[in-house]
Amino acid sequence: MKRIKITITSFLVVSLIQAQFSVSGEINPYAMIRTKDSSKINLPFRLLSLDTGYSFESFDIKINTAVEHRIKTNKSLLDLREAYFAFYPEWGEVKLGKQIHSWGAADAINPTNNANPYDYYYMFKVGAGTKVGVLSLASTYYSDSFQIEIVVNPYFNKNRIPYAEKDFPLAPDNEPKVKYYPNEELEIGVRLQTSLNIGDFSLSFFSGNDRMPSLHTGIFSNESSADISMDLGYRRTAMLGLDFVTFIGDFTIRAESALYETKTGIIENNNRLNNFYVLNEDVIYSQYVFQFEYTTSNDLMFSGQFIGSRTINEDRKWQNNSIESSSGEIIIPDFNPGMGTPFAMFSNKAFLISSSGVFLDDQIDIQGSVMLNLENSGLFYSFGSGYSPILNWKVELAATQFLGSGKPKDPFTLMEDFSHVRIGIMYNF
Amino acid sequence: MGKKHSIYLKINTLVIIFSTSLIYGQTGREIALMVDQLPSPIDISNESTMVLTNSKGKTRTNKMISKSVDGNKKQITWFIEPKDDHGVAFLKIEHDNKDDEMRMWLPDFKKIRRISSKRRGDSFMASDLSYEDLASREIEKYLYERREDVIIDGVDCFVVEVRPTEKVESSYQKHLSWINKSTLSVVKENSYDKRGELLKIKKFTHKKIKDYYIMSEIYVENVQKNHSTKLVIDKMEVDAGVKASLFQEKNLKRLPR
Fold this sequence. Notes:
Mean pLDDT of chain B: 87
Helix content of chain B: 10-25%
Number of helices of chain B: 3
Number of strands of chain A: 23
Strand order of the largest sheet of chain B: 6-5-4-3-2-1-13-12-11-10-9-8-7
Shape of chain B: globular
Largest sheet of chain B: 13 strands, antiparallel
Number of domains of chain B: 1
Oligomer: heterodimer
Structural class of chain A: mainly beta
Order of helices and strands of chain A: HEEEEEEEEEEEEEEEEEEEEEEHE
CATH superfamily of chain B: Lipoprotein localisation LolA/LolB/LppX
Strand content of chain A: over 45%
Order of helices and strands of chain B: HHEEEEEEHEEEEEEE
Low-confidence stretches of chain A: none
Largest interface: A-B, 45 and 40 residues
Shape of chain A: globular
Strand content of chain B: over 45%
């Protein structure tokens, strides 16, 4: 026993001597002011992001935390965004713990990136900050010409939605009570990437559960549309994805496409109610992004993204004790995808133009983007700039404006109230 | 392997010294070949500081760690400072018969992004060095013309004009290189843009480590922008046994110890 203790102590001492600690992060207080009436938008933001790491030989421990703050209530919340253990053998890497995975070749909008739920509070940000970390086991094998990644999520995870947030126009008024949670929680993803002279090509597969709830059952009075109660649940969805990056002349092309098949799980009529109906859905839908980018000799980057989604095949019906209700008796609501990029809820066809550049030795950075709804007349545009007079400090100013089609249910119209100016300071350490 | 390599280096060095002392009537290409055939380390590891100075004299400092093998044909660089770039890493693999591969690890996105290797004239981390400046030059893809020898800062130099051929995509029309006759190391180079106007003045300082003359400082001035970059190698190690397997995507994600 004493020998074991000595061995463990020696190992820990040697580990501490040879190990490398790293701490980095940012402090980023900001305020969002509504363009319409100069009122403050009361939403939380990440005041502090802290990335800590501990490396020893082929092992890493990574912990990423954030302090989320809300100005109006002056309340802060500690968020453990990631905490995982990584092992790097000669052939690749193995990671276990709460982590964020990033799949897909396109920038910001990635239909194939489904291993983690989205954090809708940060849906207009870019990068891993838009995602919620989940407990998973991931491993990647690297060879000279290809790599294969496997992700296993043992538990079900849902999107973080800003329920009952009056200042977020797309937020539901209340958090709905979800009755039907997945019977099968296990989620598996596989991604195969090959590198060729002309570019990188990837094929991916993900089998998991919807991140957004959808209507599952209803109890109707006298088999009419006048419902007594409706219950939500999460469907099982499988995704087959393809993405690539290639270079044509001075242009870089990044494209990504995902095909989803979603099905309602088996739901029993436990209470043997005659007016209990199940909305059985079996839908195939797709989402895609086609992106081209060009960088000028002055390091100005221009990119264009064509973003689309469409329902390919749908079989959706209310069923009562395995007997289909006749059409017209009970209204079938519109189909809502529960997996994929959140931008699909804005439009089925949109075009996003972005540009960014840095000036005066990285002291000034400027970005601008315009998203055009190709289906209706909605659009949003944003402009952002950062000025760094002192190294590691930056003053940020950004503006986002939404213009809807005028139709009340159009997301662009709803988001008009969210148009705002953002002022903040960022300190990197 | 180590002994064989050492003998090979010694023979090479003797051949070069013998050659340089006897044949002063070489052509530009022969001088370039001599420079190309200089013994070079199997691998180089370094920590460096890059100071950018703008026309108003304001500076910005970048720190990075880099490892390379095969005469810089495979290179991995991790950025340490400025802090907003901390953890960003860059992997370059040059190929003889196909396009080079360049990838960047962006920690904020948790993503490795393949970037075009065709735009070799793009600036490297907002410095006055372009990716082309950092790449090795393949002899057969350039034309060399010897100019009149000069003495600069007391160093007797060959002067060679280097012009890219159609086999290579270049943002330059030509370079004028000053090569130290005794060490065959490039001490200065002027690079001209496509219009033939002077664009960059580069000065190189070399340090002898083991049997090699290795660049320890690079000063680049973009005369058209009145902007300069000074890259100083703070720590350097050669032939330290850097493994070929280091030049994999997964290693971009881990800062070296």
